[in-house]
Amino acid sequence: MADGFSGKIKEKLIEAKQKWAENGRLLTGQADHAHENRLPPGQREVKDWPVLDLGITPHVGTDDFRLTIDGAVENPVTLDFGQLLDLPPFMAKNDIHCVTSWSRYDNHWQGVSALSLADLVKPTSDARHVLFTAHDGYTTNVRIDQFIDDDVLLAHHWEDAPLTEEHGGPVRVIIPKLYFWKSAKWVKQITFSKTDKPGFWEVRGYHNNADPWTEERYG
Questions:
Q1: How many helices (H) and strands (E) are present in the chain, helices listed first?
Q2: Which residues on neighbouring strands pair with residue 165, listed in sequence order?
Q3: Which residues does the UniProt record annotate as the domain Oxidoreductase molybdopterin-binding (predicted)?
Q4: How far apart are CA 80 and CA 215, in angstroms?
Q5: 92: Cβ–Cβ under 8 A, 6 or more apart, which residues?
Q6: What is d(CA 38, CA 126) in angstroms, rounded to the nearest whole number?
């Protein structure tokens, strides 16, 4: 497969999740546009943090970490871990919601805000989308307004400890308003784009927008 997973993925996991999309698994039809409840429709609260991935855990140390931000920007950059830490620090507390039906409240993050990154690279006026690529080859996509938001960050700490490898460390994306598959683990490239490019799950039947409150689980 062109997305870099060929020969590596647990194919049964992929097939199972594609069947979820085909069958509309977990859909309740009870959208909560007003966010009257803290828990989005079809979700359940968990106290732990489940580990979900595609059967691959890349080993990226902070010494090896590089983040490229490119595409429709005036100032493309490649940052090592130290340079990322030199950017203005950002702390956030939010809830996260996984399309597999779990939600976890009050997660405390430390990292760099998407607003700071945008200020650094200066997206061009015709940039409309943001594309993410991870060290395991995973890709996903959001609109530019979904990324350049005041609660979005690249996180390197969770609950006052370095983000663990299993949860996407050393650095992962956090976009709390969307289902968590949009928050790419092990991020290595962020590309601002004039055009959209659906990612790994989006081309396999999952919704391009991924709003938990309106149950945008599947396309």
A1: 4, 11
A2: none
A3: 57-201
A4: 37
A5: 108, 109, 111, 151, 153, 174, 176
A6: 35
Paired tokens of 210: 């991924």
Global confidence as pTM: 0.93
Q: How many Å apart are CA 23 and CA 69, to the nearest integer?
A: 37
Place of tokens 């340079």: 83
Question: How many Å apart are CA 42 and CA 214, to the nearest integer?
Answer: 10
φ and ψ of 157, to 5 deg: -130, 145
Question: What is residue 13's three-state secondary structure?
Answer: helix
Best CA proximity match to 42, nearest among 22, 32, 27: 27
Beta bridge partners of 5: none
Whole-number Å distance between alpha carbons of 76 and 89 = 20
**Residue 201 contacts residue 140 (beta carbons within 8 Å):** yes
**What are the pLDDT tens digits along the chain (219 aa)?**
344 554 555 687 788 889 989 999 889 999 999 998 999 999 999 999 998 766 678 999 999 999 999 999 999 999 999 999 999 999 999 999 999 999 999 999 999 999 999 999 999 999 999 999 999 999 999 999 999 999 999 999 999 999 999 999 999 999 999 999 999 999 999 999 999 999 999 999 999 999 999 999 999
Q: In whole angstroms, what is the distance from residue 50 CA to residue 3 CA?
A: 25
Q: Which amino acid is at 1?
A: M
